[in-house]
Amino acid sequence: MVKIFAHRGYKKKFPENSMLAFRKAIEYGADGIELDVHLTADEQLVVIHDDTLDRTTNRSGTVKDLTFAELRKAKIRTGRFTYERIPLLKDVLDLLEDTPLELNIEIKGKTGGVLEARLIELLARYSMDERLIISSFQLESVRRIKQLQPALETAYLYSRYVDRPWQLKSVYLFDGIHTNTFYTSEDFAAKIAAEQLNVRLYTVNRAVDIAYWLKTDVDAIITDDVELAVNTKKFI
After folding, report:
1. Which of 8, 165, 171, 183 is the most buried (most CB within 10 A)?
2. How many whole angstroms separate alpha carbon 43 and alpha carbon 165?
């Protein structure tokens, strides 16, 4: 059965990458959560998509140049939900630890391996390895994670067409492919899966696309609209 991952939490209705969005993803029946992680100036792992605060909060600045205490002064800016704060990855792990949900952590930013090391140190405190997927557009980050902790599932994330992405597996040691639906057909997804790679599709938001992919053999879809996906799945 195809799993449903909440893209940055229940993003369609709640502030992206906020604890509220993650709690609502759980409440509305997601099988997993996808989120983004950056490293702060004081080497804290924080959950935010962009390199800067500008788009998603009421403040400006570059995440890597600010301490966590400085980041916590920012309010996530989405409609009436103005008091959500940028969370630590630890907060999300604490939330999910006693649930069956999977967690896809996307590594953002280039830190020369510091982020990856801090991430492995944090994840070692939890017994969640079998429910974790570490993904990135940066293949070096993907390889570094697998070298640091072979038990973790890793995934190569890309947003363009990549011909025969499985050929990179032996070099970069990934276990899955996270690909944009614009560049993937059911047949191509099957070719990826035939190479012993998990296939997850993003960002699947239209009802017709959700229904299409839920009828295939991919591992998961990643969506902004948790309720639509969960309700559609009931009739597949």
Report:
1. 8
2. 32
Please state, in angstroms and rounded to a whole number, the distance separating the CA atoms of residues 145 and 36. Answer: 15
Mean pLDDT of the chain: 96
Q: Is 38 in the active site? A: no
Find the catalytic residue in 12, 13, 23, 49.
49
pLDDT of 83: 80
Q: Say whether 178 is catalytic.
A: no
Place of tokens 């948790």: 226
Q: Which residues contact 222 (CB under 8 A, 6 or more apart)?
A: 5, 6, 7, 34, 104, 178, 200, 201, 202, 203, 204
Q: Spot the catalytic one: 3, 7, 38, 178.
A: 7
The predicted pLDDT at position 81 comes to 58
Checking if the pLDDT of 69 tops 90, the result is: yes
In angstroms, the Cα distances linking 36 to 18, 73, 92, 117 are 11, 19, 11, 16
Q: 13 is written with which tokens? A: 């209705």
In the three-class reduction of DSSP (H, G, I as helix; E, B as strand; rest coil), residue 34 is classed as strand
Structure tokens at 36: 């983004």
CB 19 within 8 A of CB 83: no
pLDDT digits (tens, 9 = 90+) for 81-117: 568 999 999 999 999 999 999 999 999 989 999 999 9
Average pLDDT, integer, range 54-75: 96
Cβ contacts of 23-27, under 8 Å, gap ≥ 24: 23/95, 24/226, 25/226, 26/95, 26/96, 26/99, 26/101
pLDDT the model gives residue 77: 74
